[in-house]
């Protein structure tokens, strides 16, 4: 047990045993639920349709950054998948999304001291960054580990390229919380460096690996400071720069990138349903995000969550498992660089927020399912934890305190219990937002079992006699 606790980090709390607090009225028919889960798992592993769907998505729309032709292709692909699988009320719900393009791959290389190999340092512009001037920026490097260090050495930063060398903490057993501890340097680094007079900001890639794959991701400029260009460099690239600095040598880098912004573009969330039998107005939402970065194919992020969600509803429909409440599949647009889709969903469905009884998001990749994280109130959590005991055979029985997901977090204001799918976290950041996020990194059985756990959980929640107890609405 202590190993399990370590695995997810100190904040996580295991909650089984909570099933004891369930009332008699809510007690499910355990045997019939077990039989349903078994049917779903068997179907998933027999036909492997989730994986086939992900192959199709990553072949037909590999690059799905908001506003791009690839994102538009993904929208149409998802709509066709829903229609073909017999979803009901299939529709596109509009949103306006930011449109940023990387341009060419850019370059970062040593001007001083010359390296024997003189190989460029692998970089990727951060999503939303300004370009450098066409001729690039050549400036001395100042390396810092933290914003505090930057503040202490502020006088040195003027006219320099600030390198934020803040690794994801290796000692954290949860890579997701390790990412959370470091990602602020990616999202805020450029503006903090600009405040100190820097001319550019380079950020150590958000990964626990040492390799030469840079990892992009969203960044935001604050109002006020100059909008200086920013990119992520590979972890081995950071090492090459750091070795010189630590030896007391002055390092001058040449940095060039030609990314650019365009006008906001029209796009869509893709929505389809399996309408409930007796409470069709009550909604159990399942979803992921359809957009993805322009490097790699977004196979795990979030092609996996997209296909988990589509395939879960398709599997229930195919097996004739139509629950009491409506299951609504929502494939959100623009999770990566703006969450315009999530905001548009909330705006369009504000009137039926109270009818959303549960929401589940899959956006942590398609690796071996371990369970779920949830912000549900203790009573609902006990019910969900009991449901998850049906996934013990394939090791996906955890129901831990934690987050739902970025897109569904907009439903929190309605007191909707939120759940996030939790796969094994150790390889996700090897490939997250990088060229490596391709279909060959996805294991069919792992992906299918994740889908089976999701399909089973949403079915059980949607088919409960009593509605899952809601969370208190946040007061603000
Ligand atoms: Zn994602």
Q: Cα distance, first to last residue?
A: 38 Å
Strand order of the largest sheet: 1-9-11-10-12-15-13-14
Q: What is the CATH homology-level superfamily of the largest domain? A: Zn peptidases
Main beta-sheet annotation: 8 strands, mixed
Number of DSSP helical runs: 13
Number of self-contained structural domains: 2
Let me know the number of strands. Answer: 15
CATH class of the largest domain: Alpha Beta
Keywords:
single chain, 476 residues, alpha/beta, Aminopeptidase, Glucose Oxidase, domain 1, 2 domains, elongated, disordered N terminus, binds zinc ion
Protein described:
With 476 residues, this protein is of the alpha/beta class. It has two domains: 2-98 and 263-462, Zn peptidases (Aminopeptidase, 3-Layer(aba) Sandwich), CATH 3.40.630; 103-258, 3-Layer(bba) Sandwich (Glucose Oxidase, domain 1), CATH 3.50.30. It has 13 helices and 15 strands. α11 links the parallel β13 (369-374) and β14 (398-401).
